[in-house]
Amino acid sequence: MEKKVLVIVESPTKARTIKRILPSNYIVEASIGHVRDLPQTAADIPKSYKEQAWARLGVNVEEDFAPLYVVPKDKTKVVSQLKKLLKEVDELYLATDEDREGESISWHLVELLKPGKKPVRRMVFHEITDTAIKQALEHTRDIDQNLVKAQETRRVIDRLYGFTLSPLLWKKISYGLSAGRVQSPGLRLIVQREFERAVFKKSYFWDLLAKLSQANQSTSFEARLLEVAGRRIATGKDFDPDTGLIKTNKDLWILNEDNSKDLLIRLEKANWKVIDVQEKETTSKPAAPFITSTLQQEGNRKLGLSSRETMRMAQKLYEEGLITYMRTDSPNLSSQAIEGARETIVQLYGKDYLSPEIRQYSSKSASAQEAHEAIRPAGKTFVHPDKIELLGKEKALYELIWKRTIATQMADAKKAGVSVKIQAADTVFQANGTRIVFPGFLRAYVEGSDDPDQALEDKDSPLPALSIGEELKLNSLANQGHETKPPARYTEASLIQRLEKEGIGRPSTYASIISVLYERNYVRKQGTALVPSFTGISVAQFLETNFSELVEYQFTSSMESSLDAIALGQGDRSSYLKKFYLGEQGLKTQVDQREKSIKPEESRTVHLPQLQGFSDIKIGRFGPYVIFKDPESNQEIHASIPEDLAPAELTMDQLMKLIALQKEGGSAIGEDPETGLKVHFMIGRYGAYLQLGEASEDDKKPRRAPLPKDKTKDTITIEEALKALSLPRSLGRHPVSDKEITVNIGRFGPYVACDGEFRSLKKEDDVFTVTLSRVLEIMAEEKKGRAGSQVIKDLGSQEGTAFKLIEGRYGPYLKAGADNVSLSEEFKSPEGIEAFDLATALRLYQESNKKGAKSTIKSSAKNTAKSTVKTTAKKSDSPRKGGKPREAQAEE
Prior knowledge:
six-stranded antiparallel beta barrel
């Protein structure tokens, strides 16, 4: 009789894929991620530990930093089911992921299930294919306790860091803020870049651009001014990219507009002759195969995916058996992968495109350890992207991985670069051209480009065949002005690149780190750029001022090295934690010593480098504001700073205008003839708006309307202002629900509202003239989320309320009818998303209603999405009452 075996994996999809491979005597079940964790709230602490002073922390710092593990309420059914199945089988196989997190999950399963004398085997694989699974069955091992200790140490450090510093941020700045071991250095990077932009000084320079052609030829080419009378013309590379100022005082000529015009006039009648031709052939090699961080970067650049979206889709591709394990910092390719790639190249492109020798890649990081192979298509024979069943961005991400892997084994690209110097009077111009001699790997994959063929055309910009002494014809000559650009703000892709370069965090954690920065309202997106909020700056400045060593990049990097040593069995967990938390320079020691000397008023003050001497920008309950002491009245004036104003772009002139508006009570545009009330132009937290009359005891909330986008204080008329203030406009009743339908203009543009349901009006619809019939057409359409949002799961309806799991710009959240409910990290994980069903949605929605927490996912300028369903801060949430600091639980 065959032995029955229980195989436990993390997710249902992974379970289904593996079940198709294993024999029928194997029962495959999912744990849905972690089955135990540190307590999240005071309610999670077991009764027997309630009186323990350390229980809220979840770590017994006095007893060798022993963690207090609890089974979350949502996992009790899962654990019960696994225990029941274990009784019916002869052996237990743990097939969780092969990184530290997966090793930890396996260990926790054994601790909970208590298999007794039943054999327990750990099976690991980096792809879900027949061959890989069968090999894993034949080469099982014991649970690696060193990996478990390393993960546990990381989790404990994150808890100590967050739960020690976050309450301090609440007391000194504002409730709900958080600090994190990797999150905070990441925030510091973004803030530092904003400050670099703030102090950047623009420099201006000019040059000339000539369009030339050979005699009797109509096709022209471009040449740019290089020298005048033997002196080189300053170009962008001569200016410091950090300051914007010229780097050197060498014999350079910085052209201004006037002398560029003089040169232009002088050269229009000059003779143009080729004086030098240089040709050089270069080769370029393909980029290494994807690791976690580079996949996130290219997913962001090419597909517009957030880091979280990239990882969620990659997880699905892995669990469907399409790619290898997606959490890895090793670019190594197995011999099977190399063979598969080379066979595909010969089939699709021919032998000429095959690299003469096998290419192998090694990690630049000495601590690469998460997995032993790069991210690539699974198996020996790579499935072509056109033959997979997935669509949309998931298919595009697979195609990206497929192309990048194929390119690694393709021949080098060969290019011929031509540089030509052309003399006109006492000036020298230079023309450059590139010719693709052999495209090689560029035929399959061009980094940063979606279309390799188009990219080849862009790279192939040859010059005509020119010879020394050849006379050329001038077709046109123009002077062009340039200005130096400040350092670019980080995007998700470039931030990940920098974090990896500094050795901060692990590639597998970058997605959750960036999501936390959004959720805490520390950063917002401006296009693809990450702009720090004033709150984010206050947190970064607080930590840098009071605990600088904890946000030093080298400190965070060295911590990763210590954790790696523990994972390899070369470091001692206990001594490391003791030094980190209780040592002379330990975290708790520092907080205890410095807390009393930290002044809340100073902590809530934001210092911007471009406003030296002005230190009255404050962080308040309703956002940033400026304080100005009026010399005339000797009274303090408080004026809100619009949240969509980037800190680096705030000037003293803007501040004084905000103060002047507040002082005047808002500039009066005119008067409403019907009411006799003045219409004021005001500046608030969300920018400019109009207000009818002034707030009073009788009218505490006067009618307001956002300033129309194409108008300013000086261009808007009283008629236009009154028209804006006439909104919302009622269109009548809904023919089915009999509820009133109104149209209005909000922070995100014109919209229609009916019984808590909202739809954006189309570009062609005018909010002042749109008809009821047209609005009913719009409301009948399926609702679309904001840009960047998409439906992950349609969960169905219950009593007329539709439930959907949405991927928003700050991560997954639950949409219940017109209400949005934020989710804990447990439900945001790939396993949690997959297991999320209607019953779970109903329970969370009911819990949020009981707690008065129908939270709305805010915009990027005002995102207060919480990391748990509870969204209302109560007195019982204070640190003394056992409340939970809102640090990123999934940071590492």
